[in-house]
Structure formats: C-alpha cells, structure tokens
Amino acid sequence: GILIVATKNKGKVREFQHAFAPLGLTVKSMFDYPQLPDVVEDGTTFAENAFKKSKAVGEALGLPVLADDSGLCVDALDGRPGVYSARYAGENARDQDNNLKLLSELEGLKQGEDTGQPLLSPARFVCALSLYDPADGMELTAEGTVEGWITSEPAGGGGFGYDPLFYLPEYEKTMAELTLEEKQMISHRGMALRLLTDKLAAKQRK
Ligand code: ITT
Question: Which residues bind substrate (predicted)?
C-alpha cells in the first residue's frame, strides 16, 4: 500500500520511508503531487499546523494523509524558534542559514567573557503528527519530544535541519551523528510515530 505524507521536506520523507518500509508501505510526499498548493502554516502550535496540513491535503486528494509539523524550542530563547523553525532565517531559508542564525542569536545572549563551553542552552525538538481521513473526518494526533543541548560546534552529516547543532549528552553525539535507525529510536518524530500507531491500533480494536 501507499501512505501519503503532506511534506516537502526531504529529510522528513527519508525518515518516514525508513519507518514505514517494514510495514510494507511506500511513502508518497508532496514531491509526488506538485499540483497541490502550499498549505498556509499560520497556527500557533505544532499540532494545529500539522492538522492544517493533513486536512487540506487529505481533502484535496480524497485520501487519508499524514502530516508532520515540527521544530526546535531553545530555553535561552524563550522557546524560539518553535513553530517558526523552518523560516527562522527568513522565508525559504536553507537549513544552513537557520543554523547560523541560531548560533548568532545565542552568541548575542552570552554575557561577559566566553566560558569556552561548547553547550549553549538546553533545547528540545518537538514533532506533532496528524493523520486525517476525509472519508469520515477522523483525525488522530500525537506529539513527541526529545531533550538536548545546542552546541556551538556542529558535528555529523546525517539527519537534516538543526541536527548538527543538537547535542545529546547521553550519547556524546549530535543528532546528525546518529544513524537513521538510532535517530528513529530516540527522536521526537520516532516517539510521535510510535504514539500515533498505538492510537490507531487502539481505535481499530474498538
Ligand atoms: P513541511 O511543512 O513541508 O513538512 P518544513 O521543513 O517546512 O516541511 P516544518 O514547518 O514542520 O517543516 O518545520 C520544521 C523545522 O524544524 C525545519 O526547519 C526543520 O529543519 C526543523 N526540524 C524538524 N524536525 C527536525 C529534525 O528531526 N532534525 C532537525 N531539524 C528538524
């Protein structure tokens, strides 16, 4: 079977393909439906934006759709960039621009002399997933988080987005130094996916 994910983010697509392949599902993304207009993500929460995407695309295609809204919340920045993580450095910003912007914002917050600490602030990744079925209007949502630290020393070539700057003390690695498999086990997206499949299974038992 196929699963449609309402995303134009190649890093997300790779992670969903990896997660759903063992279930025999092929992931289709918005790259497979280029005629669909972009969904305006003007909600104030990750869950709200995920639902906007799953509903708009689900209704446009007349098929069940999964959507992911995610981002990085940094303590020293009062939770920013949050729902604005994708456009932190401006509309259509590249990952690299967002990462530079994040480091410069945290640099600006440093007071007095440099302590030489590579860890700048506690932070968390948040992922909200929304599954919407236009046939009966059913929606399921699940949210996952992972705690870590922003490091001033980017490392790793895996993952995407802010992963090279997200340090996990327990692993002594950044998220970008993990394999797809390892990231899936601990990430906000992996956690949200497990919660969503649990909810779906519980619903189907009823
Ligand atoms: P879609 O809306 O098309 O799915 P997007 O990239 O615009 O793609 P979001 O609006 O959800 O997605 O923004 C997510 C932002 O958070 C974006 O800057 C990502 O790079 C970042 N992000 C999300 N999950 C991440 C992860 O697992 N690792 C690193 N960065 C992540």
Answer: 7-12, 70, 160-163, 183, 188-189
